Amino acid sequence: MSTNYELEGWMGLDPSAAEGNMKWQGYEPKRWQETDVDIKITHCGICGSDLHTLRSGWKPAIYPCCVGHEIVGYAVQVGSQAEGGIKVGDRVGVGAQSSSCLKPECEECANGVENHCVATTNTYDDKYANGDKSYGGYANYWRGPSHFVFKIPEPIASEDAAPMLCAGITLYSPLKRNGCGPGKKVGIIGIGGLGHFGLLYAKALGAEKVVAISRKATKRDDALELGADEYISTDEDPKWAEHHARSVDLLISTISQPNMPLEQYLQLLRVHGTFIQVGAPEDRMPAFYAFALIGKGVKMGGSAIGSPAEIREMLELTVKKNVKPWINARPLKEANQAVVDMAANQARYRYVLVNEAHAT
User: Which residues, other chains included, contact 344 with Cβ-Cβ below 8 Å and sequence gap of 6+?
Assistant: First the structure.
């Protein structure tokens, strides 16, 4: 379908893109289908996944690639078979997943866990079923299947909504599925873009106690303001694992460094506690003795973003509990510098690119 706008964005052409060398250029979006929505992008969060992808950290990227999967804007073209009651002019967003098979015989899609479908298409640096490439939100427009496009509730500002669609749901989903709520003591490992959402949503879900865990003490005041009841600095207390042993029911790790002190983290769990890894290192995680699990009957698992239903649920809770992330708005034209600053851990706690031409 022809449009009166061209799709252009910041393109990574090789691994040096992660060092601030993306190029602004046009690209060919996926072929239009009547289940699709075109979004005029106003905001796009910067995710750690963007850096991993630009530098081909997890796997070789499909260059040229346009990253960004925390997208908010306005629907400018809506297919005749689009889902979700989306209309032209609606404020909408899309997260890290833009497609799955949606076949009735697919166990995952049929049971509302589309995020685990084996035929998932990531919002960028991936291929749709027809072979077309997916491109992300460091751009002026985005096109993709409506099943994974969400109406943004009016009370949530666009700059706040954007990072919720990946970072927010990445923490909300495992917290909710693993029983975070009254009577539960929850620990969040790593206080960054992901971890700060963990503190916010653990508190919003009513956890009895929320513990922030970080290497240095520099984020203590921020963590307490974000909702933590306690702060553990692992650099400050050499015996932190011993002093806080058997203190939490649920641990969510956002750490993406492979040399994490995993066995010590497991010491923090109470009997029958649960450890969930959401950070994705580019190398193997540390080995540990089986007795770290056996001794207390603890469980260990992982979590990947969340389903469309969970995203809508998260947005409803965000409105109900007035959850507000800490974001730093950056102009889209400064995307190269913003990814460099992100890599240097300067965000407090999520950079959001603002397309000033569309946001006004």
Answer: none
